[in-house]
Amino acid sequence: xxxxxxVTATIIVCFxxxxxxxxxxxxxxxFLVGFMLKxxxxxxxxxxxxxxxxxxxxxxxxxxxxxxSILTEKxxxxxxxxxxLLTVLVGGLVGGLASLTGALARSK
Length: 108
What we know:
Blueprint: H1 2-20, H2 25-36, H3 41-66, H4 70-78, H5 83-107
């Protein structure tokens, strides 16, 4: 249950922060959630990854759907990987590492 709360809180906090701040506010939000909730290292990392993946994947899909894939098609021609996969990978790594850092800072 604590894992679900961690993922949900990560999504909510990061969505609010990213409405006003740049993309790197994802790290600030996941760090804060990882610091406030008392999880061990591995669950904190996995919750940060899952929360960031769900948030950035959902936002990327929403933007792609509302713009009729104009930018996505151009990016996919330039890069050898799928732009959604790249977005989710970067977001997941940033979110997971920031949440892990918050959990470890809390434990010390």
